[in-house]
């Protein structure tokens, strides 16, 4: 407890000096900086080797804090009441006089915002007088981190501080819903579409419109850096094999992300397992078929991209 509080103090000190730090969230770890500062947000793009064309998500403690930066509407309030704080990101219209750095939005008139649930990051946000821009804390197109060690593995000593908040509970990025114009889903993630549909009383499309810039949807995203083969029944001898249901036979190369097809559990273990396999120096990965329903939709979405390596 005491240690947590002193870590939050240290984190604030770095952030106030326009530095980037690692923060825990319930989805994945973020690389955070003051969203109102050009200098601080510029550093995020450098560290991640990310193109400035790819806008950042901004994290707030609660929706009242964002009223000066964005326009909200009824759909926003309904979803907010139901799911926030939690793994849902909203794309909203940005206010003309908002304080958000132009680096964050790539000069566009929309802003992606989120209210993370992790208690340490919420405590941190409470102590700051600015929101935090925070993409996932990985080098662009690589695997997202779900622990402090993963973040360290990505950036080494290039970042000065990471708040240790344990393993991310959800283990996959937030769902992104655009509420600019007709509501639509831009990224599958921590909240299933049918739950969002229920609240909005409409059927949202998972947009495949390439014009909407959400480069998290680009093909080579989430790559473990080695070939990934999908829907495999029998792996090659040298391959790491990822499974979601216990088999009678086993092997040193078998990695279970769930013992009995629990898709939520599988989502939580996915990035962690892919990273472990990569670190064990396997040359390729085979994955058994994951049912394309519930969290399986988001898992398959990530795996298809990972397989385009
Ligand atoms: O769970 C999450 O959302 C994590 C944690 C750290 O909060 N963050 C995360 O950020 O996944 P990032 O940058 O890795 O992915 C954000 C995605 C990117 O694909 C980006 O293109 C999209 O959100 N995005 C950001 N601003 C947008 C906007 N104004 N319109 C459409 N897409 C946007
Ligand atoms: Mg990312």
Structure description:
The chain is an alpha/beta fold and 309 residues long. The chain contains nine helices and 13 strands. The model has no long low-confidence stretch (mean pLDDT 94). 30% of the residues lie in helices and 15% in strands. Residues 25, 27-28, 30, 54-57, 89, 91, 110-112, 114, 116, 134-136, 173-174, 176, 186, 213-216 line the site of threonylcarbamoyladenylate.
Secondary-structure topology with pairs:
Elements: H1 2-16, E1 21-23, E2 30-34, H2 38-48, E3 57-59, E4 70-71, H3 74-83, E5 88-94, H4 102-105, E6 110-114, H5 119-127, E7 132-133, H6 148-155, E8 175-178, E9 184-187, H7 193-200, E10 228-229, E11 240-243, E12 254-256, H8 263-279, E13 285-287, H9 295-306
Parallel strand pairs: 3-6, 5-8, 10-13, 11-12, 11-13
Antiparallel strand pairs: 1-2, 2-7, 3-7, 4-5, 5-6, 8-9
Helix pairs in contact: 1-5, 8-9
The protein binds threonylcarbamoyladenylate and magnesium ion.
Threonylcarbamoyladenylate (TXA) is lined by residues 25, 27-28, 30, 54-57, 89, 91, 110-112, 114, 116, 134-136, 173-174, 176, 186, 213-216.
Task: Write a concise keyword list for the protein shown above.
single chain; 309 residues; alpha/beta; nine-stranded mixed sheet; four-stranded parallel sheet; 9 helices; 13 strands; 15% strand; binds threonylcarbamoyladenylate; binds magnesium ion
């Amino acid at each position: 407890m005491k240690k947590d509080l002193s870590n939050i103090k240290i984190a604030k000190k770095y952030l106030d000096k326009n530095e980037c730090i690692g923060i825990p969230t319930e989805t994945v770890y973020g690389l955070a900086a003051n969203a109102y500062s050009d200098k601080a947000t510029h550093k995020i793009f450098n560290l991640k080797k990310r193109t400035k064309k790819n806008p950042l998500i901004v994290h707030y403690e609660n929706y009242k804090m964002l009223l000066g930066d964005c326009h909200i509407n009824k759909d926003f309030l309904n979803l907010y009441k139901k799911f926030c704080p939690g793994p849902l990101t909203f794309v909203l219209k940005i206010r003309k006089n908002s304080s958000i750095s132009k680096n964050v939005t790539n000069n566009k008139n929309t802003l992606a915002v989120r209210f993370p649930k992790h208690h340490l990051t919420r405590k941190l946000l409470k102590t700051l007088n600015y929101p935090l821009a925070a993409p996932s804390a990985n080098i662009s197109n690589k695997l997202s981190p779900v622990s402090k060690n993963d973040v360290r593995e990505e950036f080494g000593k290039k970042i000065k501080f990471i708040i240790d908040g344990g393993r991310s509970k959800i283990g996959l990025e937030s769902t992104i819903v655009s509420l600019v114009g007709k509501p639509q889903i831009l990224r599958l993630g921590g909240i299933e579409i049918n739950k969002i549909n229920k609240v909005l009383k409409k059927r949202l499309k998972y947009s495949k419109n390439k014009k909407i810039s959400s480069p998290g949807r680009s093909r080579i995203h989430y790559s473990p850096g080695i070939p990934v083969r999908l829907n495999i029944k029998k792996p090659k001898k040298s391959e790491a094999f990822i499974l979601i249901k216990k088999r009678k036979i086993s092997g040193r190369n078998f990695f279970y992300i769930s013992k009995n097809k629990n898709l939520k559990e599988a989502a939580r273990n996915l990035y962690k397992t892919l990273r472990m396999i990569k670190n064990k120096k396997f040359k390729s990965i085979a994955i058994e078929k994951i049912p394309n329903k519930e969290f399986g939709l988001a898992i398959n979405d990530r795996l298809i991209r990972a397989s385009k390596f």
